[in-house]
Amino acid sequence: MEGTNHMRVLGIVGSPRRGGNTEILVDEILAGAAEAGADTEKIILNELNILPCQACDACKDGGECVQEDDMSELLKQMESCRIWVLGTPVYWWGPSAQLKAFIDRWYGANQAIFKGRTIILAISLGSGNKKTAQHIVGMFNDIADYLGMNIVATVLALGAYKLGAVRKHASVLAKARQAGKQAVDGTS
Ligand SMILES: Cc1cc2nc3c(=O)[nH]c(=O)nc-3n(C[C@H](O)[C@H](O)[C@H](O)COP(=O)(O)O)c2cc1C
Prior knowledge:
Layout: E1 8-13, H1 21-35, E2 39-44, H2 71-79, E3 83-89, H3 97-104, E4 118-124, H4 134-147, E5 150-157, H5 170-185
Parallel strand pairs: 1-2, 1-3, 3-4, 4-5
Helix pairs in contact: 1-5
C-alpha cells in the first residue's frame, strides 16, 4: 500500500493458519498504519523457508550464517522497515515454532538492525485469560530490552480459538487499528 510519508511497516505473521486470528490482527494493525500514511508489507513466516539455528557460531566467528534459506532476504526487508508488527498465536503457552525459529535466527544477524526499532506485538489465543500469554509477552520484553527495541503496543486477542473468531471482537480490532496508527504517528 502506498502512503504519503513513506514510513515502511512490516507485518510478520507467525501463524501457519491463513486468515487466522494472528493474520487478522496483523492486517488490522497494518490498516491503521496505512491510514496514518505508511507503506505496509506483510510476510507469512510459514510460507518462507526459515531453518532453525544450528548453534555452529559461524556467525560469531566472523562468517555468515550456514543456513541457505530465506532469512537473509527477510533481514534486508526488515532493515528497510522502521516498524515491525510481530504476530504469533499462543501454542502451549509459548510462540509458534515458526516464530521461534525466526527469532532464534536473530542471533546470527547484524545486531544493529534491531536497535531503536519500533515494535507492535499481536498475539492470539484460545484462552480468555491474559496470563496465558505472559511468557510470550515476557520473552518479547526481555528481547526488546536486550536489543534496544521499543515495544509500543501489545494487542491480545483473548478467547479467539476458531479460525477468524477475533472478527467478532470489535474492540480488539479497534485496538489493533489504533495501535498501527499511533505507532506511525509516534515514530519519527
Ligand atoms: C498447537 C496448538 C497449541 C495451542 N496452544 C494453546 C495454548 O497453550 N493456550 C491457548 O490459549 N490457546 C492455544 N491454542 C489455540 C490458539 O492459540 C488459537 O486458536 C489462536 O487464535 C490461533 O491463532 P491463528 O488463528 O492465527 O492460527 C493452540 C493451538 C494450537 C494449534
